[in-house]
Here is the input.
Amino acid sequence: MTEAEARTRIEPLRRDIEEHNRRYYEEAAPTISDREYDRLYRELVDLETKFPDLVTSDSPTQHVGGKTLQAFAQIQHRLPMLSLDNTYSKEEVANFYKRITRLLPDEKIPVVIEPKVDGVAVSVMYENGKLKYAATRGDGVVGDDITQNIRTIKSVPHQLRGATPKVFEVRGEAYLDKKGFERLNQEREAAGLPLFANPRNAAAGSLKHLDPKVAAKRPLGVIFYGTGAVEGAKVDLHSRIFTLFKKLGLPTHEDWWSADSVDQILAAIRDLNEIRRDFPYETDGAVIKVDALEQRERLGFTAKSPRWAIAYKYAAERVETKLLDIKVQVGRTGILTPVAVLEPVLVSGSTVSRATLHNEDEIKRKDIRIGDTVVIEKAGDVIPAVIEVVQSKRPRNATPFDFLRHIQGKCPVCGGEVRRDPQFVAWRCENLRCPAQATRRLEFFAARSALDIESVGGIVADKLVERGLVREPLDLFELKVDQLAKLNLGSDESPRVFGEKNATKAIQAIERARMFPLSRWLYALAIPDVGKTTATDLAHFHETMEDVATSKPLREVIAYHETKDKQKAKEIAERLIKSGFAEPSKSKIDKQRGIVTKVGPVVAKSVLDFFESNIGKKILQRMKQLAIESKNEKVSAKKMSELPLAGKTFVLTGTLPSMTRDDASAKIEALGGHVSGSVSKKTDYLLAGSEAGSKLGKAKELGVKIIGEKEFQRMLLSC
Here is the structure.
């Protein structure tokens, strides 16, 4: 794969992963299994590793978990809550241990093996033994304040027992008791309410409910397995916290193992698998952690995971059942996903009647047909996947499945046109007004990295679309305070209005967005293949949205790559270089006409096609009617080269004291600099904050200049 092909693949891959993160962390309603998510995530990691210049600070590989929810107050973790790398391979577990022994040679490295509870990560802060607050993981730095809901959990003490540390932050996993989960779903079924997919989803929904009475009625528990900020207690070995937790009255693991070799680790994983089904809570794996905190410190962290721990996930249960039908669902990004309708079958303690088929190519590859007996796998207790067909049980009249004929060539939700993108092996609804896509597009449009109208994200976006107040993002600019104030975020039976105060703030944010820079608007419109960096590059060479829609540089990029006339290509190249939209290639190949353009032909065509489509034309017309005039960021070629940070590449790592990474990136790009996600010989500066990860070591190794926020601020002032 070339870098251009990788760039084209990475953008939609990131969008899909962010969508799954949102569903998993914010809605507690995942639509794919952990294994499938891990496959997508691994693909992104591999592409970013192969093409480090394509790594961006907003990539899912550079942050943890999901966003905080607007309905809750937020709490900043004193120490980041990081997620763990995970694997399904015992060989990778062995490699993990070999790797840490290489990093700390000639040292004995004991590890602890403990159950991986399938619940919701929480952090609970005690001060002088008294419960002060509780928070979700959130994005790893800031989480939702769920103190009132945590207080309803009977096993979580409000006051620790005995002599207590001054500050004691404990991390754990909130779960819903297995038997309690069954009773809860029986009650919901009797009441005609939708059933929870699994105990984890039910636990997440309970903790994020605005009414603590709901959480109090559900059989929630917490298993604490680690610490965050601690003052007044010496915690030097992880293995000692289990005894300490019990002494203080905190629920923790009863079963755990110590090991100092690969064989002992694998034996512990096997032993845990023998007994874990008897636990009152769901488990999906084993967590292996270095025991000594001092050794952990020296092993350090990657961008989002500690090097001293790994999670091993057990193989999912597989069963046979009959495939009765295939339905096609439309995701919020327009992707059409086939779903198998199954003869109900019991898997991992619950009845399954649907399973994902992923995409058309997967159906063809496995030759899945309606009427087949299939093997399904229930990984992570979410929607199962069809693994294979039992050919010996195939009915004689079963015919190959024709995806396009099955949907009659139209989107099953809106009846709009569909297009198959062969690179992404998926059909996509082309109608940007399709109801199935409306909420997702609205959230993307209003995200902080786009137009920063985050008060209309999450459940607010869902309800705006559901109540018919917004069909497309630009409808936001016609909303009135009283409409938003009356918006019911609950149900008809249990109403919960948005309120005038929240509505006023939202309208103010919407009005501010009218004059946001062109780059933010280009990104917010979710134009295919246009990420933040591309949007910034386009904004530097165009004054208005209309200029982008009819862009001469973009047309010339396409013409340059399509023409076979060397003289014509040379003339185009000269014009593009003169305008600053291209520079001569440093590659030894194709010296005569080789240039590197700000965007490639795939992106250029995608942008022009978007604005030439009916939807694109309507967006331009609507923006004009709404008097939306994005701020001009155009910079002449000469001025571009004269910008103070022109030609300088920055990499950001760690947490900055007074600004976010997005803020720092914006300041760098405004002054002509480039922000990369990985350190290389081409890096000019590493901007390092607290809790800096592996990039810091790489920068030192390569001799890259390392600066802190104060030096960065002085650099900005001097510019």
